[in-house]
Design brief:
Pfam families: DHquinase_I, SDH_C, Shikimate_DH, Shikimate_dh_N. This is Shikimate dehydrogenase. By secondary structure, the chain is α/β, with parallel strands linked by helices. Helices cover about 35% and strands about 20% of the residues. Strands 7-6-5-4-3-2-1-8 form an eight-stranded parallel β-sheet. A six-stranded mixed β-sheet has the order 10-9-11-13-14-12. The protein has a three-stranded parallel β-sheet with strand order 17-18-19. Helix 3 links the parallel strand 3 (about 60) and strand 4.
Amino acid sequence: MTLLCVPLVARTVEEMVADAAAAAAAGGDLVEIRLDFIQGFRPREHLPLLLRGCPLPALVTYRPSWEGGQYEGDDTTRFETLRLAMELGVDYVDIELKVADKFMSFISGNKPEKCKLIVSSHNYEYTPSCEDLANLVARIQAVGADIVKVATTAKDIVDVSRMFQVMVHCQVPMIGLVMSEKGLMSRVLAPKFGGYLTFGILNAAKTSASGQPTVEELLNIYHIRHIGPDTKVLGLIANPVKQSKSPILHNKCLQSVGYNAVYLPLLGDNLASFLETYSSPDFSGFSCSLPFKVDAVKCCDEHDPVAKSIGAINTIIRRPDGKLVGYNTDYIGAISAIEDGIGGAGGAGKAIAYGAKEKGARVVVANRTYEKAVSLANAIGGQALRLADLETFRPEEGMILANATSLGMYPNTDGTPISKKALSFYDMVFDAVYAPKVTRLLREAEECGVKVVSGVEMFIRQAIGQFEHFTGGIEAPESLMREIAAKYT
């Protein structure tokens, strides 16, 4: 079982003792005591206080500044402190590969049987090739490590795949983590690829490295205790992605029906590269959001007829034979929430416009790039406008304004595609943005007395379709989805 380790980075011994208790209460398996964070640290006075009353097994780390830590002193003092921790019965000690030989000579090979030695290497710039990573692991093993630790940095989400490849072939216990938001999946999927432990922080203010999720997220959203070698990997590939509530919604629903899968936020740069890299059947389905919905069409081997007609995809399923099939559940989600609409010319806008036309509506497409508006309008027999033209455009009776742009999305919540003055001419305003639930566009429309439809409705309804594609036809728990959406949006 992959252990859940909570790093303790408090500045005082008293606060660190309190955080150790909080880590145990939160469900951690062990704590990493980062001695280099403690101000005025006095080893012989403070170590007994930290270790003897610790409610969880402890890993002691005294990280120097040259390896990304806070300790500025000499190695001898640091080595003496780590040896003292061993004598006091600590469960794990972490030492850096660069000085591992020197440390082993310092302790003369005398290490208590109970204490496991973690030998670590950190790369804060990039993730090396598989060959270089494998050679690094071999070097760490050769110095006498009980546990190998390699932490690198993801410049692109595809970098994480190299760490996974090395982890599954490692012959000794290994901690393999990739830092930064793009490396999050390395932390969540550690149990799938045999990681000895992964780190979960108490809260966002208590991080020891970039990209660390909280204990709460790992246990209650990603359900890390239930992830294993056979767990399917699903996720939302987008850029940006952290604002999305899809991981919360899909994971809780997958858990509710007992489907063995985990759904991740996947911060990507290139959809084709991502799909080519993570080509294992276990990476079985993905949601696509900005800016990849149109790119997804050419990445798929087959397309649902509706998705092909729309020219945008928000759901990709990898069949057992490896073929990628594209679907569009935005279409159903949007049009079941509103009857007619006008909107942007991106992925969601294409779906709304297509669906509205199918329902017999007159469609007017407005876009910041006029050529995109013309292209979509021509495809569906609609009218094209520049986005600025909406200020003087006078809709006919019964028209609905549907915003399918990202204007107003968190964190840029002041954005809106149209002035408040122009909103009063519409019968209804729909906003595909659901974070925040009440956007500036919807708020100003309500102030004008116009009926509004929140993007939360589209979010729920498209998620129902996605869930059923992901699970091979299991009925989506709609009531649970609505409960989650009400709580988190």
